[in-house]
């Protein structure tokens, strides 16, 4: 019985070492869901949370809001997601309340 327990402990330790090696050194062999969460992976895509605040404005954050429904968005880090910096005239009128 003692040899069996020692063997099981050794097997679990070997699996833990193999999982750690896979996570750090070979993330391309992980399933896609784990590759997206692994910062060592080329497929790493951190989660962005989209939600509406009390005024109804859309907010983006790196942490989910505690008291509101939210949507998880995964953005490819190689994609440019920065929009035009200058607002359009239509956006300015909408902010002022003009129609």
Describe this structure in words.
It contains three helices and three strands, in the order H-H-E-E-E-H. The termini are far apart. A three-stranded antiparallel beta sheet has the order 2-1-3, with no helix packed on it. The mean pLDDT is 84. The longest helix is centred in the N-terminal third of the chain and has 24 residues, at 2-25. It is of the alpha+beta class and 99 residues long. Strand 1 (47-52) and strand 2 (58-61) form a beta hairpin. The chain has two domains: 1-44; 45-99, no CATH class. The chain has helices spanning 2-25, 32-37, 89-96; strands at residues 47-52, 58-61, 71-74.
**Overall 3D form:** elongated
* Percent of sequence in beta strands: 5-15%
The gyration radius over C-alpha positions equals 23 Å
Helix content: 25-40%
Report the mean per-residue pLDDT as an integer.
84
- Low-confidence sequence ranges: none
Q: Please, how many helices?
A: 3
Element pattern in H and E: HHEEEH
**Number of extended strands:** 3
Provide the number of structural domains.
Answer: 2
The strand order across the widest sheet is 2-1-3
- Assembly status: single chain
What's the end-to-end separation, in Å? 81 Å
Helix and strand composition category: alpha+beta
